[in-house]
Amino acid sequence: MPRPSSNQPESRILKITGLKSFPVADAEGNKYFFVKVYTDAGIDGIGEAGIRIWGNAIGKAVEHLSEILIGENPWSTERHWQKMFRGNFFPADKVYMCAISAIDIALWDIKGKSVDMPVYKLLGGPVRDKVVCYPHTQGKTLVGLVDNCKQAVDDGWKFVRWGQPETHGELEYSGDAGRLEPLKSMRLAVEQMGAVRDAVGPDISICFDVHTRLDTRHTIEMCRDLESFKPFFIEDPIRSENPASYRKIAANINLPIAAGEQWASKWPFREVIEQETIDYARIDLCIVGGITEALKITHWAETHYIDIVPHNPLGPVSAAACVSLTMASTNVGVQEMPKRPGTFATDLFPQQIGWEDGYAFCHDAPGLGIVFDEDAAEANRVDPQGWVPQLYRDDGAQTNW
Amino acid sequence: MKVSAIKSYPVQDGDGRGYFIVKVETDAGIYGLGEIGIRNWGNAIETAIAHLSEVVIGQDPWSTEKLWQKMFRANFFPADTVYGCAISAIDIALWDIKGKSVDMPVYKLLGGPVRDKVVCYPHVNGNTLQELIDDCKAHVDRGWKFVRWHQPQTLPGLYNDIDGHGILEPRESMKLAVEQIGGVRAALPDVEICFDVHTRLDTTHVIEMCRDLEEFKPFFIEDPIRSENPASYRKIMDKINLPIAAGEQWVSKWPFREVIENETIDYARIDLCIVGGITEALKITHWAETHYIDIVPHNPLGPVSAAACVNLCMASTNVGVQEMPRQPGTFANDLFPQQIEWEDGYAWVPDAPGLGVDFDESVAESNRVDPRGWVSQLRRNDGAFTNW
Predict the structure, then answer these.
(1) Residue A6's CB: how many other CB atoms inside 10 A?
(2) Single pTM value for the model
(3) Residue A388 lies in a domain
(4) Does A370 fall in a domain?
């Protein structure tokens, strides 16, 4: 019998016919970068890129990668991943990985739709019925933050999460000249967490995101002061460029550490997983290389009893991809879910994943379980390029947002 | 779709070769096949399969991850080798069902294919050096690109352990091995040579032998030491300048962890029918990719194991070579009228639903045997027991 490459009955070959990038804004002005992949069977898939503000370069990378995808079978996700990642000699960087991620997620969406199955079923099936999530809570003042956390708990969330406070006067400054003076921010963080813990009680889990804003010695000092409040984890306590620095963090901090949202591929995760210098792997499916790569990291994290907490600050496609993965994975801590699914970007996505009482779930619907309104997206194209808010030290030096 | 029954078939083919096949049935009429890796322990494994069926029957066969977790750790004690074999056979059968239920080959569900065909090595043998060389040549003439044999016995003949009481005296065997590989290399300069120490030597001896083998450039040296202590591969890797293959006796990803993460092996010899099935093999394969370690799935068994291995290799980017003792379709045809394909030294899975292998249940039913048995036994000249 001939080999598979030459023997697939024509009727069973599904072929990719095109890819299109959608840098768009929803009705409220929130921006996203989606990639849609089309096939000759009328089935299409949707993906999302993780660094929207680099969107123009990512859009060019999507066009470039489409040269090797058009005419190919969307089911060959492993071959396509290998070709996209290393088919141009240089291993893919973050720009190309965002493109690969969006394409890979869209291919998984197509695979699910083509056999009328949710993606989580293709990933090994549901190991849980629903996935506990943490929202983004916030406040420009301590009272504002505490009130917002209490509101989230009243709304059913089991977790709260906020980030390392700014020192401009407002804890979350909205301009482009924000301040982040480390020692002051550390004191504010301790105040915040003490007040929130008092307000929400011992049963609500607190996620605290340093967001790479401190350096190693400062974050160690702050975390010792935070221990008594028993946060669920401290996220990104240091910057991401040097994973080996997590050795010092793990040796000196007695709180669970979450990291990984900026890493593209399994290789930056290797050291922190194998040396167990992190507790939660913050895989970003829209940066790391899509569902294909996220699954490989998740499975090896299982070997080390490390749970995943997929990074999801983006739109409804990222949310659906994350929850598809966490429904099918045994080692899950919690899922980031900034806003309740179905309450935003509904103009672009009339169908999104489900949410109830602090838990998210994918519907038993084909693919990722979401519906993208392409006409609405076409009418809402925007220039994706941009910058995150900027933070400075009191001496005027640039510091991480 | 729900799993409705799980049946064990310890059987033999027309040539008297034994296999232990597991059939998982569903209420949709679709069934899947699996195989266990340690047929000699078949009675205990059959009982474990019956035990595990309590948590599998009634479940959706697509829930392979949930069922793997449940089978592996839902009885508190992590699964051992007996339960690992039972899990493996059930998991492989579930993947077969998944493929059939969507009319797709399993390799497609694994993300593939990344290649059209998988290069394979056969088992060659001979009771004298000349017989070994002749058998190697005969295999190369039939298209094989690799040959493989194992650490020679020292009495009564290199392979003549039919009486079940061969002799293996290390230093003598080491000298014979160097003669063998030298002889085969001289006769066949371009063939790839896989040499399987088969856990028959200890660390000191295998290091000495491998230094003498370097000039013949074997593709790998397999199982240079016993499997109980993966940390010993550190010493092997420090002292041996040949590629090392290991892992065929390990259940789950955990014994593989150290040798992959420390890169103290070069090829991961995952046995899909022991390790925990396709679900677990895929996880190990994917992390081996991180360390540029290729897999060489262990496949000394029957057509179901062969099909599962080749499905994995067709969908994996990091593959060295696939063990394939005999040409598929040339044995056990009475039991397995449909097997994977082979041509010119390469195997591939046909574009057929599931694993691409099927068995004749009525033939299996009439060929049941007691699977229990022992491998051949080896002893030293002083009468001490030593590994086969």
Answers:
(1) 8
(2) 0.92
(3) no
(4) no
